[in-house]
Amino acid sequence: MKILTPNPKTIGKFLAILSQDFTDSERLEIRCLREKYTAQTARFTTAQISDAVEHIEKMNATHNVYAVVNPVPETASRDAKDKDIKRALFAFIDADDLGAADRARSSDLFAQAMEVITGKTPHLRNHIYYKFDAPVTAMSEWVGLQKMLATTLGTDEKIYNPSRLMRVAGTIAYPSSAKEKRGYKAEATELLIGGCEYSGEKHYVE
Known about the structure:
By secondary structure, the protein is of the alpha+beta class. The chain is 24% helix and 31% strand. A hairpin with a 6-residue loop joins strand 2 (26-33) and strand 3.
């Protein structure tokens, strides 16, 4: 029996891409969630990515692990809120419904910076990130762009809040009990850059 485990190289690469243009006063916020448990939040500087990877590996044994995509100011309250976020470096989509992932992949609306495969059962699901040439500081404009992307590509229409959490690539995705009933199962998430899988092979132990 193969036991899925998180892939630290993929996790580290994903976090490095996400935070590559953070300032010294901005943080990566990691949120670990599990049904019927209190959320666990931790923050890291860009110099602490190895610490973040270690934390994520440990927590992912039992929790789903997410990151706030937009930079979180070091002065932000615990569990960053929308009002805390001052700028955005990426636009992104969440394609969870049947057919949405392929539709998003085929779009040439923007150049893709990276893609996270969040699952393949019962159908392909992904997140796609589009990096801005310059940070967007008018967050109302960013919200509008997120809404436009979702409408145009037919993807999740709820992911326009500035403090949005997205799944960390390289971690194990555990479905909720409701999703298990719909055919979802625990799966290793993957990171694609330029259409190619970053890690090379799935990460598991016998």
